[in-house]
Amino acid sequence: MILLPILCYHEIGGHDAARGQRRSVVPLELFVEQMAYLRRAGYRCVTLGEARNYLQGERRRRRVVVLTFDDGTADFYGQAYPVLKQHGFSATVFVVAQAVGGISRWSGSSGAPLMSWREIQELARQGIEIGSHALTHSSVTRLPLDIAREEVRKSRRIIQGRLGTAVHSFCYPYGDFDPQVEMLVTEAGYNLACSTVRGNLHTRKDLFHLKRILVNRFTSIARLRRRLSPLYDLRCRLHRLRSKTSGHSAEVDHGGRNAP
Asked: Cα dist. 212→1, 125, 179, 200, 232 in Å?
């Protein structure tokens, strides 16, 4: 098993009361504190693409963590990226190809503004990896096969066309995947794909359903430190086993107060 914590963020900041109360929104001051902790603890924060060699067994001298941001919200460009730049950290941002420059309608009635292509292009030039979060942020497993294929393939073509570089990483909207969707992602030319299954230990067979550590407004430094430990993966596996035994979904809670 390979220890590689992959942190999953959504929105940073939250400029209005409705957004700021959503648990997926990490207050800026907490995000600043989390990044400062990672720096003090000696972590090197890399993109998902850079971490691929580690996932395939390459030895490393330093602690490594991957920072991922789903949806491509405008607060990444305005609030999160300046903090990352200050610490010399990189990250992977998953954008919804047909929604760029719009609003994240899928996140509720008060959806968040999304980055523009100009902002995304600038981030890519600065070393931020841009991955695909599908074409429309639809639950791909619930779509007819031809439409699901289009969500996966066309999103990659659009992003590559805008950036002029290859796109290697995919993130399943809502963490929704199955073997058929994994095959579509593989056939489309991606090298890696992220789920929302919780954990931080991986095998070389997990490249298309990587586990992540879901971070939200309740993720204190103490909780973050625990989730970086390999013991966190064990707790998550036990949680999934109990949930399966009781007949409940193990991955519904996206990291709330009671998450492992």
From this structure: 15, 26, 18, 6, 11
d(CA 46, CA 16): 31
Q: Give yes or no for a contact between 249 and 243, defined as CB atoms under 8 angstroms apart.
A: yes
Alpha-carbon distance of 55 to 206, in angstroms, equals 9
Residues in the chain: 260
Strands 2-3 and 201-202: antiparallel
Strands (E), 22-128: 25-26, 43-46, 63-71, 92-95
Q: Model confidence over 112-157: pLDDT tens digits?
A: 999 999 999 999 999 999 999 999 999 999 999 999 999 999 999 9
**What are the structure tokens assigned to 255, written together?**
């990291």
Q: At how many degrees (to 10) do helices 117-125 and 145-163 cross?
A: 60
> How large is the average pLDDT for residues 27-56?
95
> 150, 80, 83: which is closest to 112 by C-alpha?
80
Q: What is the largest CA-CA distance in the chain?
A: 48
Q: How many helices (H) and strands (E) does the chain have?
A: 10, 12
pLDDT of residue 23: 78
Bridge partner residues of 129 (DSSP):
92
Q: List domains and CATH numbers for the chain.
A: 2-234 (3.20.20.370)
DSSP 152: H
193: nearest Cα among 184, 201, 5: 184
CA dist., res. 169 & res. 65, Å (int): 16
